[in-house]
Amino acid sequence: MLDKIYESLLNDDYIAEQAKGRIKYYEYPETATMDKPHIIIDPLDVPMPDDYADDTWLTDDYLYQIEVWSKSRSITEKLSARIRHVLWGMGFKQGSGMDEWDKDFNIFRDARRYRGKVYRDDFDSL
Fold first, then answer.
1. How far apart, in whole angstroms, are the C-alpha atoms of residue 1 and residue 25?
2. Band of the pLDDT at 33, cuts 50, 70, 90?
3. Domains plus CATH for the chain?
4. What is residue 18's three-state secondary structure?
5. CA 73 to CA 119: how far, in whole Å?
6. Can you give the pTM of this predicted structure?
7. Structure confidence by residue, pLDDT tens digits, 37-50
């Protein structure tokens, strides 16, 4: 799922224009050297089986946190809104999050959590 999210973000023109090459899994940028926007995709839990039929789970439930870091509040807000739009199209809904500013480094950070279910793709082999 990480790869699907990553590819979907890169397929958005605005996100690619602002953060191509700086969309990472698990890796957080060094704030002291950050001069362009960064996006971090962070799984918060392992995929959980959900939606059952005949004692078999049908979907995997995912929980991710996606953070946008930049020195521009407006770019941080626009990127976060585009990410929400892209993930909504993938079936993910936005949950909680936080918006903060680090005055020591002048970095704006928007961290949002997304939950989504994806149907299993191995039904033929069960």
1. 11
2. confident
3. 2-125 (3.30.70.1700)
4. helix
5. 36
6. 0.90
7. 999 999 999 999 99
